[in-house]
Amino acid sequence: METNILDAVHALTRSRLTVALTGAGISVESGIPPFRGPGSLWEKIDPTEFAHIDAFMKNPARVWEVLMGAMKKVLDTARPNKAHLALAEFERRGLLSAVITQNVDSLHQKAGSQDVIEFHGTFATLVCMACGKATPSEEIGLESLPPLCACGGIYRPDCVFFGENIPMEALGRSREFASQCEAMLVVGTSATVQPAAMMPVLAKQNGATIIEVNPTPTPLTAGVTDIFLKGNAGAVLSRLAEAIPIPARG
């Protein structure tokens, strides 16, 4: 582990452009359950029944009752953990240019990260499907379901449902960063869900060093990852931040 930390420090300090790709694993320490894997949300709820845009359009009250309401309660109160704070610190020190996240919790922004590409949108904002008004999620109550805008329209999360496309701007900027970066931090994701899964591969094909942070090996580890840092995201990224000399190049 110590050798790998030193290798990661060397890769990050010499990289002229570094980007991070994060997934659900980085937010588990903030009390947000993952969508896939043991103990995940999709083990309890069928995503095709409650997370597909067709299901929402057919019965928004039911989707809010079973899935969205519970998610809102968790995400409204979640706070950044040491992993989010470490990535924000990397950005402040000129070691990280952007974060590409598959998460919808907006914890990177709450931690202080300035350039966050939200691949799947955000649950931090609810949008009226009638008038288009966007409102912070924490300002909308759940006294009645589905929650309604003052105009009478139904609120939906500003995130990507199954059956919807990734925002083109997010996809385009992610591909641009992945093709140009010299190092990529892959944190808390197995990168198996497309098109996000292609970002480490694209970066690798263009000569970037891939630094993976995960508690267990993933499909990336053997064929794509250059430096594997085993452990929980908070502990590993905090250790990595401590190991990088200050002042960093600026």
From TrEMBL:
Known PROSITE patterns for this protein?
Answer: SIRTUIN
Q: Does the keyword Zinc apply?
A: yes
Which ranges carry the Deacetylase sirtuin-type domain?
1-247
Query: Which residues constitute the catalytic centre?
Result: 120
Instruction: Name the residues that bind Zn(2+).
Output: 128, 131, 149, 151
Q: Which GO terms describe its molecular function?
A: histone deacetylase activity, NAD-dependent; metal ion binding; NAD+ binding
Top EC group: transferase
* The keyword Transferase is assigned to this record: yes
Q: Which InterPro entries does the UniProt record give? A: DHS-like_NAD/FAD-binding_dom, NAD-dep_sirtuin_deacylases, Sirtuin, Sirtuin_cat_small_dom_sf, Ssirtuin_cat_dom
Enzyme Commission number, as recorded: 2.3.1.286
Q: Which UniProt keywords apply?
A: Metal-binding, NAD, Transferase, Zinc
Protein name according to UniProt: protein acetyllysine N-acetyltransferase
